[in-house]
């Protein structure tokens, strides 16, 4: 079973773009609510705050699932391992539960960085490895390049973007997806459908969105600094959307509202 589903009941607390005391306080609040999976990255520049906050929770290391991601600037053989070791030092841990490649490399040749990721796994720096922002073709290449299981492909996934092709391809090669930008950075709240559906379950629009993602077979990463919203984002396992409501939401995916593209991130591939 995928480590995300095993260890987090499909819910992780994301830390982008939080830094400093804001990050520390949000992580402490998330841990108090019940989150045990936390997602950070070298690119976020908050691994030290994340490590400090998680240490302060007093939660046993084995009860945490910590994910971090290697910055594409560190994909060179001369930088990769040193960057992972610095991440572990900043996070105050000896190994990370899940180590991801944050983006495909420029040029699209995924083999060199995947081989370095495998080396980090072989050295015990990561209990599990995965990727982020990979296309179907890249996923197919990845499973032929590395020996260790690839536990996730973390991608933009929300009800305003059609990711059916990517989801089908990921299922075909056995690599589960996990979401970022799960509420489309607030864009979903401009659509009345989610609130209308939520009323029937006694849930908020945001909870409906997150539940839809989970019922698509995708684990969720959510971020908030508001304790009430942090709790609401966590409380999504006590209801199930009907097939009618799932289909109603599915129609909104044809909005094709994509947040992260090449105009924002230079490593963004040509999406499926």
Briefly summarize what is shown.
The protein is α/β, with parallel strands linked by helices and 272 residues long. Helix content is 40%, strand content 15%.
Describe, in plain words, how this protein is organized in 3D.
The model has no long low-confidence stretch (mean pLDDT 95). Strands 1-2-3-4-5-6-7-8 form an 8-stranded parallel β-barrel, surrounded by 5 helices. Helix 3 links the parallel strand 2 (37-39) and strand 3 (65-70). The chain has helices spanning 3-8, 20-33, 47-57, 80-91, 111-122, 136-145, 164-173, 192-199, 205-215, 227-234, 243-250, and strands at 11-14, 37-39, 65-70, 96-101, 126-132, 150-156, 177-180, 219-222. It is globular and about 55 Å long. It has one domain: NADP-dependent oxidoreductase domain (TIM Barrel), CATH 3.20.20. It contains 11 helices and 8 strands. It is α/β, with parallel strands linked by helices. The longest helix is centred in the first third of the chain and has 14 residues, at 20-33.
């Amino acid at each position: 079973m995928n480590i995300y589903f095993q260890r987090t009941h499909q819910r992780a607390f994301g830390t982008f773009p939080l830094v400093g005391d804001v990050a520390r306080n949000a992580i402490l609040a998330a841990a108090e609510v019940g989150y045990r999976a936390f997602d950070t990255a070298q690119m976020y520049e908050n691994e030290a705050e994340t490590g400090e906050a998680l240490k302060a929770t007093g939660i046993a290391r084995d009860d945490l699932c910590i994910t971090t991601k290697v910055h594409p600037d560190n994909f060179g053989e001369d930088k990769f391992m040193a960057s992972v070791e610095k991440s572990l030092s900043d996070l105050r841990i000896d190994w990370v539960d899940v180590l991801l490649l944050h983006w495909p490399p420029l040029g699209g040749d995924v083999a060199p960085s995947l081989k370095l990721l495998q080396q980090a796994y072989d050295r015990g720096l990561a209990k599990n490895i995965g990727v982020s922002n990979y296309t179907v073709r890249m996923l197919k290449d990845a499973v032929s390049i590395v020996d260790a299981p690839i536990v996730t492909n973390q991608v933009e996934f929300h009800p305003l973007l059609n990711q059916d092709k990517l989801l089908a391809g990921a299922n075909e090669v056995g690599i589960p997806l996990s979401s970022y930008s799960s509420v489309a950075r607030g864009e979903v709240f401009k659509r009345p459908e989610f609130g209308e559906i939520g009323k029937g379950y006694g849930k908020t629009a945001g909870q409906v969105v997150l539940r839809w993602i989970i019922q698509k077979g995708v684990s969720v990463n959510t971020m908030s600094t508001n304790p009430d919203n942090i709790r609401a984002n966590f409380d999504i396992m006590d209801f199930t959307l009907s097939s009618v409501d799932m289909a109603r939401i599915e129609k909104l995916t044809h909005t094709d509202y994509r947040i992260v593209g090449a105009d924002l991130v230079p490593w963004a591939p040509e999406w499926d």
